[in-house]
Amino acid sequence: MALYSAAAAVLAGLERGEGGLKSLVYNSGFPHVRQLYALVSETLRYASVLEKLLDGAALLQAEKKLAPQLAKVLVYDLLFGKGLKCGGRWKALARRHRARLEAELARMKVRHKVSRNEDLLTSEKAVSAAASQVPRYVRVNTLKTCVDDVINFFKRQGYAYLGKAASVEELKALSGKKFLLDLHLPELLVFPSHTDLHDNLLYTSGHIILQDKASCLPAFLLSPAAGSHVIDACAAPGNKTSYLAAILKNKGQIFAFDVDPKRVATMNTLLTRAGVTGCQLAQQDFLTVDPRDPRYSRVTHILLDPSCSGSGMVTRGPGEEAAPSAERLQALAGFQRRVLNHALSFPALQRLVYSTCSLHQEENEDVVKAVLQEWGSAFRLVTAFPSWPCRGLAAFSGSESCLRASPAETLTHGFFVAVLERCKEGAAAPSSLPAAAESPQPGEGMEPGAASKKRKKKKQQVK
């Protein structure tokens, strides 16, 4: 059983971003590292298939004390490996559910019109192809260093720096040990998709953050001035929070909320490593936070990235998770409308960014439209990042002010971002106000590099 416990721990560490596969395996303390590495690697290879098997057989619902990571390695060895190498309660559990798991595996083969287990992986090729196009994005953590020093560090490690990218096509053409400065975000470096930097000194010391480009957009477009009070409403695992702290230059106050204690603990580790100060973490459902609490009387900016279907994540397998039922989408959209309404009720709020990693209009444009209608002329949509190629769907007048991202058009995960601002007294209704009628705000009506160039950076030399 020690093998499966160790493998489950490695999978959990990977999910929490605690390191790369090799480092987690070799630091696990398990005596047979090759055996452990092989089991985890194969489990990861079959990950999307295993997730569907677990869902179809309802194994986690039947065995509520069974961790998902442990379930994956047990089911992999039971159905795809060389058979379980353990006894005791877990072998008894596997035997108890074996018939149901095998029946679900047979149904999967029929649906995919394949006869071999290995052939199930071919149905994931489209997703793998999309994932392979998305580069490795590296955000320079300006709380600890600066872009030039990080570039020089990688050059000393044998990487070739090609300068600032001029187009998305240049990012797509990256290969080998070459990297570029992103064409949109001034603190983002771009490496080929296969680049693994989890063991790199810059990552382990918090000088760089491995964060998809689309995930950087919400904090970048919120763009709070140093000294601002900011809420990150659904903050874990903390990458966006750490970017907010860098934009604030650790001056001001961030209130970061998440309801899951494990995710809060992970976020605390990440923020400490990134050198973030002036951030209050709270294990609390944001919907239970009182906007009238004096602690939040100076909150002018809110980043809201609520739970969603996750359908824009290219590492997901196709199927139910990528195409949730209408009932599931309706439930998510209802929650998202409630939490967005709650965020807009903070009395000093001036600017809010709403984002999801979903592709579905129900969770994106429809949520923004419904909430703006409820608030009348109090808030308006901002046309942020005018040169961004992917705009919101034509769901309502003004929805083109929103941003979308996708592997095909922006070489990122699928994402949606909307920027809302409080209207000045007597301003026009949110959806009808032309973007050009307002003077530019940070991230509005100008290229996103401009606001960043005005910031005075405090640099710490990379050794």
How would you explain this protein's 3D organization?
The active site is at residue 357. The chain has helices at 2-15, 21-26, 33-45, 47-57, 59-62, 68-79, 88-112, 125-133, 147-156, 168-172, 201-204, 213-222, 239-248, 261-273, 326-344, 365-375, 407-410, 449-454, and strands at 136-140, 160-164, 178-181, 188-191, 208-210, 229-232, 253-258, 279-283, 299-304, 351-356, 379-382, 403-405, 415-422. With 463 residues, the protein is of the alpha/beta class. The protein has 3 domains: 1-128, no CATH class; 133-210, Sun protein, domain 3 (Alpha-Beta Plaits); 214-422, Vaccinia Virus protein VP39 (Rossmann fold), CATH 3.40.50. The strands form 2 sheets. Strands 6, 7, 8, 9, 10, 11, 12 and 13 form an 8-stranded mixed β-sheet that branches. The chain is globular, with a radius of gyration of 23 Å.
How many strand units?
13
Distance between the termini: 43 Å
CATH topology assignment of the largest domain: Rossmann fold
Radius of gyration: 23 Å
Instruction: Report the biggest beta sheet as strand number plus sense, adding barrel if it closes.
Output: 8 strands, mixed
How many domains make up the coordinates? 3
Query: Which strand-content bin applies to the residues?
Result: 5-15%
